[in-house]
């Protein structure tokens, strides 16, 4: 048992902090065994996509799919980045041209795109290939349905809310 847990008099507290299933032991184990490989793989793959200039091509190819939910193909960039870090992906939605696209992309990021930590846990839970295909299908369906409803709720440039991409009112 680690020496820092010897200061605790109660065995229960010792086990809670440093035992086989303790907070510190499990968090270090999960960070190294599950999350670190997923995050590393994601950022290596994303850097290859950026360096090979496949990201703009992917945006062009997916433009038709995103048009059906009222967005441009450029939306694929924040959505792909969202699998690494959702916070950074929301910031990257600034590259989208209209206020409406930014809101829809943010909704999609919040509802259906798992971050790398969630992705690592999901891959650990569903190691079976069939289960992984089912999970990917469900996530894709959730994204499409959410995008469809978000595009219906936010019609036009500014939507029913009071602003548009320039910050002016919808009537102006």
Largest sheet: none
Taking the alpha carbons of the first and last residues, their distance comes to 69 Å
What is the string of helix and strand elements?
HHHHHHHHH
Which structural class is indicated by helix and strand composition? mainly alpha
Count the beta strands. Answer: 0
Q: Residue-averaged pLDDT, rounded?
A: 78
How much strand? under 5%
Radius of gyration: 21 Å
- Count of helical stretches: 9
Low-pLDDT sequence parts: 158-172
Q: In percent, how helical is the residue content?
A: 55-70%
| Gross geometry | elongated
Provide structural commentary.
By secondary structure, the protein is mostly helical. The chain has a domain at 52-153. Helix content is 65%, strand content 0%. The N and C termini lie far apart (69 Å). Residues 158-172 have low confidence and may be disordered. InterPro entries: FeoB_GTPase, Gate_dom.
Properties at a glance:
single chain; 172 residues; mainly alpha; 9 helices; 0% strand
Describe the secondary-structure layout:
Blueprint: H1 11-18, H2 23-51, H3 54-61, H4 63-67, H5 76-82, H6 86-92, H7 99-111, H8 116-125, H9 129-153
Helix pairs in contact: 2-8, 5-6, 7-9
Pfam family, one: Gate
Keywords: Membrane, Transmembrane, Transmembrane helix
GO molecular function, one term: ferrous iron transmembrane transporter activity
